[in-house]
Amino acid sequence: MGVMKKFEQRLEGLVNGTFAKVFKSEVQPVEIAGALQRECDNNATIWNRDRTVVPNDFIVELSAPDYERLSPYSGQLGDELAGMVRDYAKQQRYTFMGPIKVNLEKADDLDTGLYRVRSRTLASSSSQAAPASGRPAQDPQGAPGGGYGYPPAAAPAAPPTGAPPMPSAPPPGARPGGYGQPTGQRPPAAPTSGGRARFWIEINGTRHQISRPTLVLGRSTDADVRIDDPGVSRRHCEIRTGAPSTIQDLGSTNGIVVDGQHTTRATLRDGSRIVVGSTTVIYRQAEG
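Predicted structure:
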């Protein structure tokens, strides 16, 4: 059984209890769970062939109305979300540098139904090699740990006996954040360097970096970028980066429109406008 399905079933047992009010909120716990999975995937840092480190400390920012609805249950919901992250990390063979924590915060600049996720790797005094997730104690830009308004992170402890040695800083190319969620705003992804081509998309002012050869857009929580639009299919279309980059419809109900033309497949250029459902996606590319 999939990690997300297990999470949903655990919450279903609480619907008639303390979580009855939570599910009336426009931001659903399963949406947050999907965002945390993507946050792990998009911030995974390969330390060596046997260890991939992902974030272990997460903050979910909610609008004032959603925060008021969810905050009375934040402890229990945080524990469930942390358990989901732990299960997902085990499935993906990810490693944490400390205990997993998920906290809710109120953000006055967000409207009802919008949210954003921030994450970091926070090392514990005795880092464990069991599957989990977190960002290295030094952030990708070389500043001491603690970006995004967090306090400075503690220095990582020596690895357990027999574990591969951990480098003192993450390898080049590590970056904060990941794909932004389709709802809510987040800081633009930091550009990569080294002269390589960079690819990203913009949805409602939110930038989603494309760090893999393919990117699936859709309404499902399994999509790489989730678009909460009733006119968007669960797996609506796929962008393939390259020279040139292309977009392919994945058998969606409503199809795709690229630069004003209905199509099932098209070549993308910098600034191409993609319409899925009632949502406009801007494709971007640039040399690093």
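Summary: The radius of gyration is 19 Å.
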